[in-house]
TrEMBL record:
SMART domains: AAA. PROSITE patterns: ABC_TRANSPORTER_1, ABC_TRANSPORTER_2. This is ABC-type Mn/Zn transport systems, ATPase component. Pfam families: ABC_tran. Gene3D superfamilies: P-loop containing nucleotide triphosphate hydrolases (3.40.50.300). Its EC number is 3.6.3.-. Belongs to the ABC transporter superfamily. It comes from Coprococcus catus GD/7.
Length: 231
């Protein structure tokens, strides 16, 4: 089942075009890695798909389940966000805000969803800890649990392992792999880590010149990959 379709999509800011005539689809269960050089438009594309900025031209079509349930989003953290003085439970629960229509109180179903997400990511024991006191890897687990509260269908991850050490990075990739392969959650991830991409991705979207969209196996045997290795 197709969850997202981008048709002849042109994105940018004002009159500045970053990407144009972009066509690709995301199907249920895909693990799509979005790669490209800095400034190629990766984050702008993700923000446009998330309706955080408007496209200049073209269409983005969403399956009705995505329209109803939304998309879980794990953005890159700023240093200020890493110092946020709230409990783990509060941050995970905040992922239910969109589903609750920004009501001042959470429903019992929201609280149950937060407990389930914390159990999935093995952070239940951190529920009452202050977020800013956690390690980088623990904070990413908390934010991933928050994203899971927003939806059980599709997750957008923007450089989720940036700044993490190799052991924590491997652990985090294993979590994403489990959510995709065992839980059936569609993954869209911006990444510079081609080695991890090779292990887990089903599809690659390479932005810039040359452009590529297709199966990961085809990408790693393409001239585009050869070009990437040479630069």
């Amino acid at each position: 089942m197709t969850q997202i379709t981008c048709r002849d999509l042109t994105i940018g800011y004002g009159s500045r075009i970053i990407l144009k005539h972009l066509n690709f689809t995301v199907n249920e269960g895909d693990y799509l890695c979005i790669i490209g050089e800095n400034g190629s438009g990766k984050s702008s594309l993700m923000r446009t798909i998330l309706n955080l900025q408007n496209p200049i031209n073209g269409q983005i079509l969403y399956d009705h389940q995505i329209q109803q349930n939304g998309i879980g989003y794990l953005p890159q953290q700023t240093s200020r966000q890493k110092d946020f003085p709230a409990s783990v439970r509060e941050i995970v629960l905040s992922g239910c805000d969109r589903r609750s229509g920004f009501h001042p109180f959470y429903h019992a179903s929201d609280k149950k969803k937060a407990v389930t997400a914390m159990q999935q990511l093995k952070i239940t024991h951190l529920a009452h800890r202050c977020y800013r006191e956690l390690s980088g890897g623990q904070q990413q687990r908390v934010l991933l649990a928050r994203a899971l509260c927003a939806t059980k269908k599709i997750l957008f991850l923007d450089e989720p392992v940036s700044g993490l050490d190799p052991e924590v990075t491997a652990d985090f990739y294993a979590l994403i792999r489990h959510l995709n392969r065992r839980e059936g959650i569609t993954i869209l991830m911006i990444s510079h880590d081609l080695q991890a991409t090779a292990a887990d991705a089903t599809h690659i979207l390479h932005l810039g010149t040359p452009f590529f969209y297709g199966l990961a196996s085809d990408y790693f045997h393409s001239e585009v990959h050869t070009h990437d290795r040479l630069i």
